[in-house]
């Protein structure tokens, strides 16, 4: 939180307001705290989607290089856009993000995102990464991301550590079940 | 053939109109709500929108407009809160960039 003048309120928690009577009742909403969990490109995509139903999540690699008109939003972090779509109650956008996230999965990305503390709140995402990880375990176990998750190298909160421990337990349980299953 | 031409024309017209319409998000002279994204005190960008469009197309903003007590989400402000700061002592915006915010040329 930075120097907010008297008369303003925060976006997080309650709301924000420009100091002094806003001209023409224009309301100002600030997003500037970690818990807002949104950046400029993400917000631009969210508003763009609400306005005209489009976002800049290219379906192909060529799509990323496609030229867009002035004012078109940049390519967002799909994971963050998914979280924002959830928060802003945009199920269509959430599904669009999910599709995008599913398409670009690699063992590294799956591990990194599954063990991301934010993943805990989204069962759909958690299941997506969990299933991918189990299905591709032979590749996953060779990645640095997996090593980091196992050795708890990241500086994370106790709650995030518990989430990780739970995940590791569930993964080992699933792998063990699969190993026992008749071929 | 004619149908294809019509379809192409329709899509292009729609897209061009949409883009023009959506470009308003970047125009500080329009809209009745400004979204300011900052990293600490560093301004990352502003976006401008019409509450009515947001409310018409999105449940989050619709509820925000209609339900005075619903401000569970980030950025929610009740009509009461719009009036409330009038009781507080005003001070000037905290950075020059924000100062420009107070007088959008509508």
Question: Concise description?
Answer:
The complex is a heterodimer of chains A (183) and B (106). Chain A contains 9 helices and 1 strand, in the order E-H-H-H-H-H-H-H-H-H.
Describe this structure in words.
The complex is a heterodimer of chains A (183) and B (106). With 183 residues, chain A is mainly alpha-helical. Chain A contains 9 helices and 1 strand; from the N terminus they run βααααααααα. In chain B, helix 2 (51-57) crosses helix 3. Chain B is of the alpha+beta class and 106 residues long. In chain B, strand 1 (33-39) and strand 2 (42-49) form a beta hairpin. The relative contact order of chain B is 0.11. Chain B is elongated and about 55 Å long. Chain B has helices spanning 2-23, 51-57, 59-66, 79-83, 96-99; strands at 33-39, 42-49. Chain B is built from 5 helices and 2 strands. The interface between A and B is large, with 50 and 55 residues. Strand 1 (27-31) of chain A pairs parallel with strand 1 of chain B.
Beta strand count of chain A: 1
Shape of chain A: globular
Give the low-confidence spans of chain B.
67-106
Low-confidence spans of chain A: 1-22
Count of DSSP helices of chain B? 5
Mean pLDDT of chain B: 64
Following the backbone from N to C, one meets helices and strands of chain A in this order, namely EHHHHHHHHH
List keywords for this structure.
heterodimer, A: 183 residues, mainly alpha, 9 helices, disordered N terminus, B: 106 residues, alpha+beta, 5 helices, 43% helix, 14% strand, elongated
């Amino acid at each position: 939180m930075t120097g907010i003048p008297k008369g303003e309120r925060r976006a997080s928690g309650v709301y924000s307001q420009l100091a002094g009577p806003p001209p023409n009742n224009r309301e100002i909403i600030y997003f500037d705290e970690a818990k807002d969990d949104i950046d400029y490109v993400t917000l631009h995509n969210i508003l763009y989607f609400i306005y005209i139903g489009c976002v800049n999540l290219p379906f192909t690699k060529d799509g990323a290089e496609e030229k867009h008109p002035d004012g078109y939003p940049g390519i967002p972090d799909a994971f963050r856009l998914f979280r924002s779509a959830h928060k802003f109650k945009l199920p269509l956008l959430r599904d669009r993000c999910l599709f995008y996230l599913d398409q670009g999965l690699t063992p590294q990305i799956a591990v990194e995102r599954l063990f991301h503390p934010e993943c805990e709140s989204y069962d759909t995402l958690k299941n997506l990464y969990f299933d991918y990880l189990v299905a591709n375990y032979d590749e996953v176990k060779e990645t640095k991301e997996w090593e980091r998750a196992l050795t708890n190298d990241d500086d994370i909160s106790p709650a995030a550590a518990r989430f990780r421990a739970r995940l590791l337990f569930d993964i080992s349980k699933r792998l063990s079940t699969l190993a026992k299953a008749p071929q | 053939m004619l149908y294809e031409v019509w379809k192409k024309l329709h899509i292009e017209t729609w897209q061009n109109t949409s883009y023009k319409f959506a470009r308003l998000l970047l125009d500080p002279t329009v809209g009745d709500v400004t979204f300011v994204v900052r990293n600490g005190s560093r301004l990352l960008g502003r976006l401008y929108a019409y509450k009515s469009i947001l409310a018409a197309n999105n449940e989050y903003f619709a509820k925000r407009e209609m339900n005075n007590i619903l401000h569970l989400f980030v950025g929610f402000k009740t009509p009461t809160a719009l009036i409330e700061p009038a009781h507080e002592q005003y001070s000037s915006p905290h950075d020059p960039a924000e100062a420009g915010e107070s007088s959008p040329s509508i």
